[in-house]
Amino acid sequence: MSSLHRRHLAVSPDWLALYYKDPLEITHGEGRHVWDADGRRYLDFFGGILTTMTAHALPEVTKAVSEQAGRIIHSSTLYLNRPMVELAERIATLSGIPDARVFFTTSGTEANDTALLLATAYRRSNQILAMRNSYHGRSFSTVSITGNSAWSPTNLSPLQTLYVHGGVRTRGPYAHLGDVDFIAACVADLEDLLGHTREPAALIAEPIQGVGGFTSPPDGLYAAFRRVLDRHGVLWISDEVQTGWGRSGEHFWGWQAHGENGPPDILTFAKGIGNGMSIGGVVARADVMNCLDANSISTFGGSPVTMAAGLANLSYLLEHDLQGNARRVGGLLIERLRAVGAAAECVREVRGRGLMIGIELVKPGTDEADPQAAAAVLEAAREGGLLIGKGGGHHTSVLRIAPPLSLTIPEAEEGAEIMAEALRSVR
């Protein structure tokens, strides 16, 4: 055990998880690579949990941060803040929500917490619909709407949460159905649920479940839900903390795969927009955002430094068509990984879109999740020079792959080869 690891254990909570039997200290990064304290280089396919979205040490972002820090680092939302207004204007336009208002936070957890505050205040209801296998953060309110027991440490809650079918396509009671029938069954389940309860405030859903193992419903499910929700006046919150900014390749926002009946009422974002800086936020229709009847500010949300980083990062993303790169390189990577998975008995499914890919592992010859195999592959990939993540319902048996969106084709090929060797090593 390293000296730093011992010091970490002495001052940190027992529940503060670390990856790897011998935890890794990352000291610096560049592009799609990071280095540890021993000087070893790794290809980064997890990006600080989908947060280093464009590249490590992106010059445009580091320059913007440095220049803004040289002017002023902090002021709070009590004062006008030009970078905050400029980034809010761009996000409001990109969101697709008409007459949008934007409120910045410091994390995705805080963004979802704010969305819940808005929805419950607007609807005067503390009842929330959430998806099974979901994850929305670690605060008291967001834990209470998280449908994944591995990340929900308490049943106590300020909200009444009801869980809906549909977030997981290939498990559960409707997995055997075709896409059209799957959507119809999930809609019928929602209709039935609403017939037995008081009017909820909102449905919150990740278009692609992140911590849940990159699972997703067929395109159009949330559009079909929207028709039902609108009849009841129930708001739709799209949690885009992991799916936003073009990561799926096909769409800029995950909700756009379900956009037949319009955008969500509330959209939450975080992670990738700051490329490592602490930015989260909420976009909502003006009538929803303005429904609060008490004062509120944010001390650190909208910090001039983080806003400068977000502006530079968003500009780089759009100017270099990183959404298109995610679609092209991600398509190649998922093909390679599916070929790798077809040769591995422990792989149940390789799924995903763009540069958001999950590999679900099971005990060979069964449909039983195998978290031990997932942990072993995580270790083996590191030994091969590749950093990946893990997650999923059913006891964390999914390998999560989400590189920076500037990933190159040679890097994708290299990562797929390391994954193939890692899977072979744990047969």
Care to describe what's here?
This protein is an alpha/beta fold. Helix content is 38%, strand content 16%. It has helices spanning 3-11, 47-50, 59-71, 82-95, 108-123, 140-143, 179-194, 221-232, 286-289, 304-319, 322-342, 371-383, 393-396, 409-425, and strands at 26-30, 33-36, 41-44, 100-105, 127-131, 160-164, 202-205, 235-239, 266-269, 280-285, 347-353, 356-361, 386-387, 389-391, 398-401. Strand 1 and strand 2 form a beta hairpin. The model has no long low-confidence stretch (mean pLDDT 96).
Write the layout of secondary structure elements.
Elements: H1 3-11, E1 26-30, E2 33-36, E3 41-44, H2 47-50, H3 59-71, H4 82-95, E4 100-105, H5 108-123, E5 127-131, H6 140-143, E6 160-164, H7 179-194, E7 202-205, H8 221-232, E8 235-239, E9 266-269, E10 280-285, H9 286-289, H10 304-319, H11 322-342, E11 347-353, E12 356-361, H12 371-383, E13 386-387, E14 389-391, H13 393-396, E15 398-401, H14 409-425
Parallel strand pairs: 3-13, 5-6, 5-7, 7-8, 8-9
Antiparallel strand pairs: 1-2, 2-3, 4-10, 9-10, 11-12, 12-15, 14-15
Helix pairs in contact: 3-10, 4-10, 7-8, 11-14, 12-14
Distance between the termini: 28 Å
The order of strands across the largest sheet is 4-10-9-8-7-5-6
Average pLDDT, rounded to a whole number, is 96
3D shape: globular
SSE order, one letter for each helix or strand: HEEEHHHEHEHEHEHEEEHHHEEHEEHEH
How would you name the oligomeric state of the polypeptide chains in this document?
A: single chain
Residues in helix, %: 25-40%
Q: What percent strand? A: 15-25%
Largest sheet: 7 strands, mixed
**Residue runs with pLDDT of under 50 for 5 or more positions:** none
How many helices in DSSP terms? 14
Rg over C-alpha atoms, rounded to the nearest angstrom? 21 Å
Number of strands: 15
Q: SS-based structural class?
A: alpha/beta
